[in-house]
Write a structure and sequence with these properties.
Helices cover 42% and strands 12% of the residues. The chain contains 14 helices and 9 strands. The chain binds iron/sulfur cluster (2 copies). One iron/sulfur cluster (SF4) binds next to loops.
Amino acid sequence: MAIPFFKEMRIGSYLLKQKLLGRKRYPLVLMLEPLFRCNLACIGCGKIDYPDAILNRRMSVQECLDAADECGAPMVAIPGGEPLIHKEIGEIVKGLVARKKFVSLCTNALLLEKKLHLFEPSPYLFFSIHLDGLKDHHDKSVSQEGVFDKCVSAIKAAKARGFTVNVNATIFDGHAAEDIAAFLDYAKELDVGVSISPGYAYERAPDQEHFLSRRKTKELFRRVFELGKGKGWKFMHSALFLDFLAGNQEHHCTPWGMPTRNIFGWQKPCYLLGEGYTKTFTELMETTDWDAYGTGRYEKCANCMAHCGYEPTAATATLAHPLQAFLTSLRGPRVTGPMAPEIALDQQRPAEYVFSAQVQQKLSEIRTAEAREKAEKTASAA
Ligand code: SF4
Ligand code: SF4
């Protein structure tokens, strides 16, 4: 049985079950960030700007598996930081696969060849290699020469060992449609699936000048899809998400569709925005003011078209309109004609800046825990 079909069947039946149970909000993919430490410093990254005391923290294997059990989503994506830096990443993946979760291990691939022995090929495991474009573009994007070549070598090595490999590309302003198309041609040559998404405008990313506006995103993707007609690029997305990128769907995001668990706890409201944390998944679902977020509601959401917010929306729309989804997948996204109306921004609430307070609180928790540990050790040695 081909893996994508098997995966789609399992995900489809999960979605159908949620619908039959009448659930309004449910998770589709757990975004598990077991650490924030990374061995790269990409210019568009908004995940690694923490003090060392936080970058040195890791979620334990048990915490990771408990998060998957608690959340119940059929898929688990493991981004970071760089998950291959986590000493127990092999155990974490093994535990998730044993639970029959579809695991997408997102990595910049620098350590992949060295650590392949930690994993076993499985229909439940996918490597998702961070690759933003062809050689010059990618190396610039990750601020280090030679990374593209290492990624390609790791992709080939992993495929040769029987693993399923995809690439994930984040698109920023200034990346020409023709270059993106050439990159997608190359991904086809490598025989890997592609997950593609406009970059979210992280407030703490080093490069603040190249995030795409919604209008520019739609125009760029229309041009890319036009260049791709008949080429058979293998996107790891639903047809309706691609149609959304091309400006043909007026979707609102589904932030609870990809809930995020990291060393801070369960992140409110989504993978991209950390506006608060809860101790449990149930608390996240029940106490987050979901209506306070999304394009048109909150300034920080104004330009967001990222897949982690809108792929769950597209999945729900696929279930509600299967014929439309089927026809869109046959024809591909529409690249001409009027776009769906844009969501008005005049009622959005202003951005709140809570990052520093959260970091200070976490640092104080870490210090308290360390002092308690030290006191316990001294007491037991006396
Ligand atoms: S590889 Fe990923 S986590 Fe690491 S710096 Fe780049 S974008 Fe951030
Ligand atoms: S629009 Fe939705 S997915 Fe995007 S940052 Fe806002 S809440 Fe998150």
